[in-house]
């Protein structure tokens, strides 16, 4: 177990993200998991956009 020092304002903000009975550790882990998922979705969206922009540069296999 590690102690993390927070400003009172930060602690109050963190508490607002929690559910009844949830520890700070659980709150932070849930938030980090959510952020990781957002990053994966962002990466997928960026790659899809790039594919859409570049798709005219490619020739479909049935046209070769």
TrEMBL record:
It holds the Pfam family DUF7557. InterPro entries: BfmA-like_N (IPR048012), DUF7557 (IPR055979). It comes from the Archaea. This is Uncharacterized protein. It comes from Methanohalarchaeum thermophilum. The lineage of its organism: Archaea, Methanobacteriati, Methanobacteriota, Methanonatronarchaeia, Methanonatronarchaeales.
């Amino acid at each position: 177990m590690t102690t993390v020092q927070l400003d009172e304002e930060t602690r109050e903000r963190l508490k607002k993200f929690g559910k009844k009975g949830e520890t700070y550790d659980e709150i932070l882990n849930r938030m980090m998991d959510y952020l990781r998922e957002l990053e994966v979705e962002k990466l997928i969206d960026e790659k899809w956009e790039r594919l859409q922009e570049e798709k005219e540069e490619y020739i479909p296999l049935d046209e070769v």
